[in-house]
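Shipment paperwork, digital attachment
Item: protein structure file
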Amino acid sequence: MSTGYTLHNRLSPELYLKNREHFDKGLIDCLEHMTKKYNEEVKKNTVLKARVESKSIALTAANRTIRELKSSLSSCKKEIKESEKLRLDEKKDFEKIISDYLKENKRIEDELDKALKQIEEIRRDIDYYKGIIDKDRNTDATNSNFPTSQIPFKKKPVNSRTKSDRKKGGQKGHTLHRSAVHDVADEVIEVRVKKAPAGAVAHKDADGNTDYYYTQEVSASFKTHITETRYFIDDTAEELHEGYMKAYAINPVIYSAELRAMVLYMNTKGAIVLDRLSEMLDVMSKGTLKIRPSTIVNWTKEFGKLSKEETEKILEEIKDQPVVNTDETSFSVMKKNSWIHVITALSGIWYTATQSRTDKETGPLARLSDYKGITVHDHLKSYYRLECDHAECNAHTDRYLKSGIDNEKSEECRELLELMHYALGRREELIKEGKTRMPEEEYKAIEKQYLEIILNELEEHRKEHPELYLKENKKFRPDYIPLFKRMCEYKEEHLRFLRDFNVPYTNNAAERGCRAVKKKKNISGYAESLDNVNDYCALLTIQETARMKNKNPLEEYTKIMGKRYIDKDGRDIRPAI
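Attachment content:
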């Protein structure tokens, strides 16, 4: 009998067992065994059933959980998909944020770099302008080209003299300065005295004996002399010269060549304002001379025309010299800048005025175009167009080097300045020995040291300050750097004073010629026309050349103004007495 056998269609085992006495014992035992087995199976089955039910419940729960998990999984997948999409969008947004941040960071870095550069530039500007202020404070006539009147910060001069208890005036033992005694006296007064004044001069006779003692008193007065010419009409008399008739065509009074020359000399040499000069002449002549400023202007124009031959002759004499000096200074014409040029040599000095500093038609470039000597100038580049030898003014070089020493504390500037002055001193020694140029070996030694100082400093400065050689930082370079470059490029011109002792170390001869112009400029302010300035240049040319030749400028003026009475054939146009 299998464990799964049932007794539902037969008599139940319980019935047999209740009536066991009626059945076989073996059968009963079998039934009991089977019943026991059945009960165990039932019990076991019940347990299994319970387990199955439990498992079924668990399975149901698991299925439900699985369904829920599947649902959750689906939701999760959906959420994951949405999350991935969201993360992708967020990633894009985040990447955009990062990109924007990097761009902003780059912009900030660029702005920061720009700001740092601006700060650095401002710092350099501050240092630069601080240097300019310090330079201005240290500027004087020894380290700049500016005259004392134009120096913005004037240094208080240091009085190195030791204070003395002596009174002002001549001191005991000092050489006596006496006025020169004149050879001829206009008036003589004779008096008899017991003793002549201590300062009287003894007059000796032919034998050396004292005749008398004499003193002189010099007096002066502004006295006019009026010459009146009276004309008597006579049909048989000669006709007056046309030029003479023209002189008196309007005004019955004219002024002599001597008077006109004197007035022009006072105006030119004294640089007296025309209104003031007119008033002075009126006062000194006690009302006799009523000369208007316009009349003086006309005389100046007349002088310019009459002096052309003399001024041209002076220029030709200058060009015959082996060395000439040139310079220029500004002059205002109707409040516009023009230039007065100076060409000078041992034989004289010549002035001319031009609108442009480098005028090629009437200025020095035209007038010296055929000159073959040596031209000394202040490094005005246009002069290098002239087909002649050139020499640089080392007075300017000295001032620039002195500025480098005072303002940049440059030892190289000090070394170069000392070398140049040593060379100048050596030149003076050789001149005293009768030499006309420095020996070649000695010149080469100075030239070598000259170049070493310049080239070494240029190289070292570029290595130490490469940033200053950028185009935008050019202004921060020390002033002596371009000076060194110029001195290297124009070495021959800067050292020419050693090759030829006729060449001066400086251009002071021409610069002195400009001083008269500056004095005039400071007083008159400006001129009405360039022609007026050239007439003034003619006056200066005659005046300064006469001074250089130890002649009387007033006499030279008088000769020229007297030309108005001379015709083209050289005859005096004034009527014969």
